Request: fold
Amino acid sequence: MRAVPQAALLLFALLTAPLARAETLFPPVPKEFRIFKDKVVELKNLPPVRDQDGVNACGIFSTASLLEFHRCRVKRIPCRNTKVDERISALQLASLDEAAGSPGIHEKVGPREILETIAKNRTRLVPEKCAPFDQLLATIRLDGEEVKLDQVRGMNVLRDLYQDSRSNHSCEACVQKLQTTLANQFGAVGKQLQADLPRLAEALRQASFEEFAYRLLIPPHCLAKAEPPPPFERHSYPATVNDKADKKVFRDILVGNLKRGLASEATLCVQPDKTKGCGLSHSVLVVGSREMCGLKGCRLSFKIQNSWGKTWQEKNEDGWIDGEWLLDRMMMGSVGAPGTPDRVAMNWIR
Amino acid sequence: MNLLIGLLITTLSAPAFAAPPASALGTSFERYAGGRFVPQAITEHQGLRVNPECAQTPTTCQALKTHARALQSRIKRDIAAHPADAFCVKVGGSVVLLRDAEKDQRNFCEFPDGSLIDSWQLHDAGKEAP
Reply:
């Protein structure tokens, strides 16, 4: 008779074992801690929440939001009143990596490189209507797999076309082929693009696919009309990729920035990896902090704006997460693979 | 003494908990289609954000059927660049970004029959974390 409950218990333990081992991403502060009202700092006038879709380039989204917040703050305009078409194009930010040597769409570009390029060159930032990321994704989505910016199905089609044009055809024939492809496979965005023959020809003349994609997807007339963001000083911690990070410094900078009304971009590790240091990192904006206290003392909580859409914010207490967890994951995110330099894990502008 | 202070703080700060924010529902969503943003109706069916056609035919709507399957089967959720997005694709959907009345973007999962469900609600159904 006693064997039955034991077997049931064993079965229950086996079924629930994976749950017990599972770790929650972005956990909240444990429930026994309550908000200490006097120690809440929460930035207002934030831009609307973005969703990066399946594109593995979170840094361009968090940086776009950081720049929008800076623009609204300096110009004293309500961020929510910005027309959707006037928001900063995340697609353009992916092209702002000076180290790459030439303009091009690069998936790997990080917040530090983007902000450095803009601060140095006073780069004009094109609005979403000129280089439409959502629309482009809606048109050229890869079915069945998570996408990387340069692996979106449409990008692959374009890459094949570009490479083909470099080797096999006269330019007239390749422009026509590009026109047909855009008209047939790229929906409304493609139809607009295919009518601009000089731009297509110019794009195909570029020396690399990244430059070709840049010329094709970010119209020069938009760059000419666009405005640079209000001037800013760029800061990073660690200051260079060769410096070691310190958890206490992370905490002090995040809290100090918030007290001055500044948001910070934070890169953290969402998938620790024993061999690589971090298997997958993610970038978010830190927009609030509060102290929460209970019987076991007090604990810090940070509010983040994630690029995983509004529902994610809602189901995670509007982005309030455990501060210790965030700081630990920023430490993990700042450590490169063994033998490689550490990474810059946070950026801010003022 | 510390215990007393902790208790006092806990008691005094209890009302500071805010109610969860209300969701924007109704016809105030927009999606990009045919070269422009067009209205997209979203309604609530048993707490799930879906399109009205799906809510009217819950037994045949693929979005709700997939949600029910996810509830029972404990399909593994992967850590990914966007976990809800990746899960949507894993269960046979494709992602559509909608914009709500407050201009915030929301990730919805669309199925071949045209039905839509909030990707995070689908992701969290019977969730077994990675």
